[in-house]
Amino acid sequence: MQSKPAALDRAVQIIQNRPLAAFAALTFVFSWLLWLAPRALGLSDTIIFRHLVALGAFAPALAGGLVGYLRCEPRPAIRWDWFMGALLAVGVLYILCLPYASSQAQSASNLTWAVRILLWAAPALVIALGMSDGGQLRGLIAAPAGAKLLTPWYAAALLAVPALFGLGYAAGWALGDAPQISLNGSAGEIALTIAASFIYMSLFGGALAEEPGLRGLALPALQQKSPPLAAAALLALAWTVWIVPLHLNGYYQASPDGALQAILFRGLLNLLLSVLLAWLYNRSAGNLLACILLHGSFTTASAFLPLTTPLLALLTAAVLALIIQAQMWQSPDQAA
């Protein structure tokens, strides 16, 4: 029987030798445990359930950060100063944005607040791991020259998808296929709601929770053996399978056409977003912050504007144009 240190060393060695497989295993196990166990145990508190779902969504970023950390030799010191600062900042942003971005009540039980603080700790830990020496987020906002160079990518990541959504909604309205938008109030109030929703969804709605792992670790690993288009498609498939429990545990509203149709539709969205993110990742020289901003803008736009047929057609056309422009069916050295 192996001693604990020997077993731990063996586990670290496996992670170092097979980082992609270790990343996938850690992601699925951690997420599915948090997504399926609450319903299996009969959890009735809606807020706690939704926060556990959000916490489970951080599996890709946490697994990616852990795998990246264990692969560093020598291992850097984790930036606990960044963790404490980020924990405070995330908590403040949560409290400020919650009234605008979510229907969840701020007043809750002590247990609910404990789960909330645990949820705040997840992005704080991602940031602490990412800002350690050799971490995935370190240096993204670095020298002024680099920041100026990356400014267009940040602007495109923030604005391109909402612009596409707006054009798609306008086309749907012109064709009589544009459901009512549920936005009320003055222009300032609407802008505040959208801004708060973007911050909230970027922190807790998938962008920061997923991108450091999916694009920071999995995509470059897949692109070592496959062209960008194939890597993005494979990642989209794994992404869709990963969130299947959310269609089964009641987190996603049941589709009138059934769970299978809902999963297939989300798979289509994942494919479009995965290709967009792969294109942006490669064109911005692997800038994760740009990917986080694009993911956050996509999630926010889809929360306010309905996914109509004209919008899906426009998104598909835009993705196809990027595939052709970047020749994503070829390896990067062939397309250069």
Topology overview:
Elements: H1 4-17, H2 19-40, H3 46-56, H4 59-71, H5 80-101, H6 110-130, H7 144-174, H8 187-204, H9 207-223, H10 228-242, H11 244-248, H12 259-283, H13 288-304, H14 309-326, H15 332-335
Gyration radius, rounded: 20 Å
Q: What is the helix tally?
A: 15
Count the strands?
Answer: 0
- How large a portion of the residues is in β-strands, by DSSP E? under 5%
Poorly predicted residue ranges: 139-147
What share of the residues lie within helices?
A: over 70%
Task: Note the quaternary state here.
Answer: single chain
Number of folding domains? 1
Overall 3D shape: globular
Distance between the termini: 53 Å
Task: Describe the protein's architecture and organization.
It is a single chain. The protein is 75% helix and 0% strand. It has helices spanning 4-17, 19-40, 46-56, 59-71, 80-101, 110-130, 144-174, 187-204, 207-223, 228-242, 244-248, 259-283, 288-304, 309-326, 332-335. Helix 4 packs parallel to helix 6 (110-130). The radius of gyration is 20 Å and the shape is globular.
Quick rundown:
It contains 15 helices and no strands.
Keyphrases for this structure?
336 residues, mainly alpha, 0% strand, single chain
